[in-house]
Amino acid sequence: MILVQISDTHIDEPGTLVYGHFDTSLALTKAVATINAMDPGPDLVLHTGDIASHGSVARYEAFKDIAGELKAPLVVIPGNHDDRDALREVLGGTSWLPTTGDFLHFVVEDYAVRLICCDSVIAGDTPGEFCPDRLRWLDEQLSEAPDRPTIVALHHPPFYSGMTGSSAKGLVRGGGEFDALLRQHSQVVRVLAGHVHRPITTTFGGTIAIAGPTTCYPFGLDTGPERLLNIVHEPPSIGVHLWLDEATPAGADLVSHVVPVGDWDAPITLLKNGRQVLTS
Ligand SMILES: [Fe+2]
Ligand SMILES: [Fe+2]
């Protein structure tokens, strides 16, 4: 199974540059082209939130037009820049967002790795939370299939990034309970988040947690006392998570990669089918 993660697309209305600089629609178009060019292509694409720069029906319609070009199925979860009502109106109840509940959370059962998509949004606020209702729901979903490898996805990373400019923890409430809950469910092979606009990996809840890269404007790795939050000119990227069910001597495992999006020169092949193509 190949799962592609996109995040923080921050789509604005057509013709608008975010922060006066960034054509996020063009950036998503390029990411879609990169994903569609994968061979083999992904089984599923997961969007870990901040779909729009500011949630609105017009922006979600614009997102739908661009992301609709994906060859692979797509599912989305909300971020702090999203608006649940507008998202529900445009995508609620579709295969991209198969729920219309108060919280936009759902489970994808169709693949080798089960995917539990959580809604960590506090409406009108930047950080997220796991309230008792959402923790209970997550516990119920995890308890239903204790033997299936599972990814838990949410927008807000539940860990500290070490970036001093955006040092606030992603979850202001429920992070400790979320950590404890995951430790009770050893089938969780990965926690996938977004929000921080750059790839970050650490441990959380007895498993591996990754904040995925963004398809639009990356944030810099600033760790100094000035507490800068810079947008940097690194390439946007996608996450590619490979479920290796029989391929490794150690058995099944999930391996996570970061793939930059851009117009690169053609690859230079060194090996093909184990045979040397180019010698030094
Ligand atoms: Fe974002
Ligand atoms: Fe965010």
Kindly provide the radius of gyration, computed on alpha-carbon positions and rounded to a whole number of angstroms.
Answer: 19 Å
The number of domains is 1
* Proportion of residues in extended strands: 15-25%
Structural class: alpha/beta
Mean of residue pLDDT values: 95
Instruction: Pick out the low-confidence regions.
Output: none
Please name the CATH topology: Purple Acid Phosphatase, chain A, domain 2
Count of discrete alpha- or pi-helical segments spanning 4 or more residues: 5
Fold and architecture overview:
The two termini are 35 Å apart. The chain has helices at 24-36, 57-67, 84-91, 132-144, 175-183; strands spanning 2-6, 44-47, 74-76, 106-108, 114-117, 128-129, 150-153, 171-173, 188-193, 200-204, 207-211, 237-244, 253-260, 271-272, 275-276. The chain is globular, with a radius of gyration of 19 Å. It is an alpha/beta fold and 280 residues long. The mean pLDDT is 95. A hairpin with a 2-residue loop joins strand 10 and strand 11 (207-211). Helices cover 19% and strands 23% of the residues. The strands form 4 sheets. Strands 4-5-7-9-11-10 form a 6-stranded mixed beta sheet. The protein has a single domain (2-276), classed as Purple Acid Phosphatase, chain A, domain 2, CATH 3.60.21.10. Helix 1 runs parallel beside helix 2 (57-67) and helix 2 packs across helix 3 (84-91). The site of one fe (ii) ion (FE2) has 6 residues, from loops.
